[in-house]
Design a protein that fits this description.
The structure is a homodimer. By secondary structure, chain A is an alpha/beta fold. The first copy, chain A, is built from 13 helices and 11 strands. The first copy, chain A, has a 6-stranded parallel β-sheet, sandwiched between helices. Chain A has a 3-stranded mixed β-sheet with strand order 7-8-9. In chain A, strand 4, helix 4 and strand 5 form a beta-alpha-beta unit.
Chain lengths: 312, 312
């Protein structure tokens, strides 16, 4: 089983270390602060603050390096990868994929990089919030664009399986569009809905009358703004397309309301879409032999159908 | 205790009959069909299908008449009120208030009308779904515009209290604006979010990756479209104002995303608003002596502060 070097020990990196260790992997990593490293060591993990040392060991062990730092902290880490372990097996756990791929191409271009996005989280953060079960049954997107190293692809998939996750292959631009639509746009809608609903200070009638529709529709506006900003701002182009799609639909709805007063088109389309979501079938777990010329295209197709890759 | 005549025995009317009867009131009513009337009779309630007979009895008993039919079915019922019990004590249970007040002014102008909106509901409908506990702790808005009959106001408030609800006084236009913002707009946002998120048939990647933010943000898009259309379309003017407020905020956000890429203003405002909602204090229950010149203005102020009227 391949060893794993985790750079960054926040909620995701810390959970990943715990899950990989439990699965019997050799795991080490680095934290951003001495205090976090000490907390991880106290919990029995091999964590320091010397990135170069961790990467040197990764190069020697031919380990899989997982970058689990925020998008905004990526550049210096990738520069150390390029300096110390330039051709290492590399993946990441950042929630957008095109921006990370661009950064890798710029700062660690020789790395054998296959992007990843374990789709799990809680409202907590930091090493202490980590949980070996965080990825159980969660989708773990693995980049499946043409030209990727299939050997590293298998490493990333095996790590995801070891953590209990479902492997969802996707082209990185399609991933970013999908998360813009089903995660980032919902966060912006929740923010706007909360602002409109709360109205002016001193007029608390609306808040007093609010019930389930407002509570649910604004729930994720309670997320820490820094987290929302990091994921949304890192996905600018795809998010802009999703926002424009939404604005087009809202504009048509506004026109209908102002002219005929009719909202049936909007409400019925939304109801159908929600019903389609609610009836989404369980993904099929399809084993894929990770070789052959068209395997990445095949993987992307499988992900578009909503299925997941099973262990071969 | 004043007798209660309930016209309409769906979820709201049926629950109201059960709750009022449990509180010791004399209650009778009418259903739209023989089958529903028979079901109510089988449950021990005095329900027929003859509206004129029910209203004649209401006039004789000086009962409080509660119109609990959908907005679209209001006109014929109000015409019977005007013909049979023209000056009766009248309230309603419809979810918008300006449109009902306009209809009463047109079709039953002599009635002593004080509008009401018990804010409770389930995804179920019909007599069988009724529940004497439906209004427990729920807000029951009672119209508090100048010129209303304080004697009938007390009747409506006492019925709400008898049903276990909290009495929230509000001007009818302020009520309609508030529910547009915290109930009707959330339903439209959920519909648009579901449509954008579900995307095209055959591309199921986004649905496969959807998690809590999408599930919560689209939940009320699962409501029966007829119910959503009835409440939203009946509140056209106020809803249009809420939609324009939201579109203004979304447009500013879109501009920021496209130009600087920054979303902090949107996300932080939404977070603050949600936190303000989450920290809404429990309403104070303030007894109000229902007489005096300015009592209705006083009641409206109390409602604007998010408080409720306690039994005097």
């Amino acid at each position: 089983m391949r060893a794993v070097c985790v750079l960054g020990t926040g909620l995701i990196g810390g959970s990943l270390m715990r899950a990989a260790a439990r699965a019997g992997r050799e795991v080490w990593g680095t934290a951003a602060s001495e205090a976090t490293a000490a907390a991880a060591v106290a919990d029995g993990f091999d964590v320091g603050t010397d990135t170069d040392a961790a990467l040197t060991r990764a190069a020697e062990a031919d380990a899989l390096v997982v970058v689990a730092v925020p998008l905004t902290a990526l550049e210096p880490v990738l520069r150390r990868v390029d300096a110390v372990a330039p051709t290492c097996r590399l993946t990441d756990a950042v929630s957008v994929k095109v921006a990370v791929a661009d950064a890798v191409a710029e700062f660690a271009p020789r790395a054998r990089y296959v992007g990843g996005h374990p789709m799990a989280g809680t409202t907590e953060s930091g090493w202490a919030a980590g949980d070996a079960d965080l990825f159980n049954e969660a989708a773990w997107v693995v980049a499946a664009d043409d030209g990727l190293d299939l050997d590293v692809w298998r490493d990333v998939a095996e790590l995801a399986w070891a953590c209990g996750a479902r492997v969802v292959p996707a082209a990185i631009d399609e991933h970013d569009i999908a998360v813009a639509r089903i995660s980032h746009l919902p966060h912006l809608f929740a923010a706007v809905l909360a602002s409109v609903g709360a109205g002016e200070q001193g007029d608390d009638l609306a808040l007093a009358l609010s019930a389930g529709s407002f509570a649910d529709g604004t729930r994720v506006a309670g997320t820490r703004p820094e987290l929302v900003l990091a994921m949304c701002e890192g996905n600018r182009a795809s998010l802009l397309a999703a926002v424009d799609d939404a604005l087009g639909r809202l504009g048509a709805m506004r026109g209908a309301l102002a002219s005929t007063g009719g909202l049936a088109a909007t409400v019925r389309a939304g109801h159908e879409a929600r019903m389609r979501w609610a009836s989404t079938r369980e993904p099929l777990e399809l084993p894929v032999a990770l070789d052959g010329e068209n395997v990445l295209a095949e993987l992307r197709e499988l992900g578009r159908r909503g299925d997941v890759v099973g262990k071969a």
